[in-house]
């Protein structure tokens, strides 16, 4: 099988490429990536060049997309602008990629009669749970609260329209917060790890009481693989980690692990600082996995405690990968990421 995987020089996509090439020795993957700030060729350093092909370009480049779709059996779309804080600063790139880019990709895939199209969305389209009760299901109405989430919700509706109008074989997946190797260090967990490794305090929004459902990226890759091969056309699937934690709980666990190993260069109360809360900050995300478990037999395998240890060790062992990225973040921002 030949698959077009878009945006795979980013975090989740690069992990997915490695996973698929390892699992399916007869598959070829074509990665179309625009190499925006979070796209990094080093994320796929050393992969099998005989079965992996990188193409520098954007999903809103109709000519490039049309050419690539001539020889593939399916599409998995990871391409997205995905950082909430950046969407608050400037929402235009999020609409360009997450809506218009998706529209170009869908139109071209429809014309090429692609056999299967999986779109990677987010749990943030559902909005916020304001109490500790309940979980989002696939039928929960959309209620996005950030420009990023709104752009992804618009993309999901476009996916649905292509299925209803054209019978196009699309499927949407909505993972919860991913973590693991190769995650850009502006995101919460790698920001924590790399700040503690370099002796800088970790910024925490508000009082650190916001709750997220954490999913190890390897488990997410397995779920997307299952959905691509066995999921029902026209459906959406939640992919939750079953690991709800307050942000402050995650921070304390990371600090504990790194303090025990002696990796942290800053400890105690000096290791973090509370900062002004994000505008419109969602309180809690939690996904109900009943559908994907019942239909495809998937459930998360990696416990959050084990996943954090593995992730911390990866960042300790791969300082070459993140040091230059940290310098770039520090240069561009006097705020949260610094």
From TrEMBL:
Q: Which residues form a coiled coil?
A: none
Which EC main class describes this enzyme?
A: lyase
The record's InterPro entries line, in alphabetical order, gives:
dTDP_Gluc_deHydtase, NAD(P)-bd_dom, NAD(P)-bd_dom_sf
- Gene Ontology molecular functions: dTDP-glucose 4,6-dehydratase activity
Record domain NAD(P)-binding: where: 4-309
Which UniProt key words apply to this protein? Lyase, NAD
This protein's source sits in the domain of life called Bacteria
Cofactors required: NAD(+)
EC id: 4.2.1.46
Entry keyword Lyase? yes
Recorded catalytic reaction(s): these are: dTDP-alpha-D-glucose = dTDP-4-dehydro-6-deoxy-alpha-D-glucose + H2O
Question: Which CDD domains does UniProt cross-reference here?
Answer: dTDP_GD_SDR_e
The record's section on Gene3D superfamilies has: NAD(P)-binding Rossmann-like Domain, UDP-galactose 4-epimerase, domain 1
Give the similarity note.
Answer: Belongs to the NAD(P)-dependent epimerase/dehydratase family. dTDP-glucose dehydratase subfamily.
The protein, known as: dTDP-glucose 4,6-dehydratase
Which organism was this protein described from? Candidatus Magnetominusculus xianensis
């Amino acid at each position: 099988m030949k698959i077009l995987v878009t945006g795979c020089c980013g975090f989740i996509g690069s992990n997915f490429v490695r996973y698929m090439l390892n699992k399916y020795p007869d598959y070829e993957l074509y990665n179309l990536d625009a190499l925006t700030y979070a796209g990094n060729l080093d994320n796929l350093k050393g992969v099998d060049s005989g079965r992996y092909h990188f193409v520098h370009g954007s999903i809103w480049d109709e000519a490039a997309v049309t050419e690539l779709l001539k020889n593939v059996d399916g599409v998995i779309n990871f391409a997205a602008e995905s950082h909430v804080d950046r969407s608050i600063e400037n929402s235009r790139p999020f609409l360009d990629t997450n809506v218009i880019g998706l529209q170009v990709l869908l139109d071209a895939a429809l014309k090429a009669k692609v056999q299967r199209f999986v779109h990677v969305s987010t749990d943030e389209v559902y909005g916020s749970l304001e109490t500790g009760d309940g979980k989002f299901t696939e039928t929960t109405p959309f209620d996005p609260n950030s420009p990023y989430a709104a752009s992804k919700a618009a993309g999901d509706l476009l996916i649905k329209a292509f299925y209803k109008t054209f019978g196009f074989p699309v499927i949407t997946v909505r993972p919860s917060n991913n973590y693991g190797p190769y995650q850009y260090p502006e995101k919460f967990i790698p920001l924590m790890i790399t700040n503690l490794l370099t002796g800088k305090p970790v910024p925490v929004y508000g009082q650190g009481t916001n709750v997220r459902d954490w999913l190890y990226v390897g488990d997410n890759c397995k779920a997307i693989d299952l959905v691509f091969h066995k999921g029902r056309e026209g459906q959406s699937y939640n992919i939750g980690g079953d690991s709800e934690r307050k942000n402050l709980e995650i921070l304390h666990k990371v600090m504990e692990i790194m303090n025990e190993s002696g990796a942290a260069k800053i400890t105690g109360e000096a290791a973090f600082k509370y900062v002004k809360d994000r505008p419109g900050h969602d309180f809690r995300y939690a996904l109900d996995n009943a559908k994907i478990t019942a239909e495809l037999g998937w459930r998360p395998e990696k416990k959050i405690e084990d996943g954090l240890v593995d992730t911390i060790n990866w960042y300790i062992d791969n300082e070459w990968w993140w040091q230059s990225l940290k310098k770039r973040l520090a240069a561009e921002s006097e705020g949260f990421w610094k």
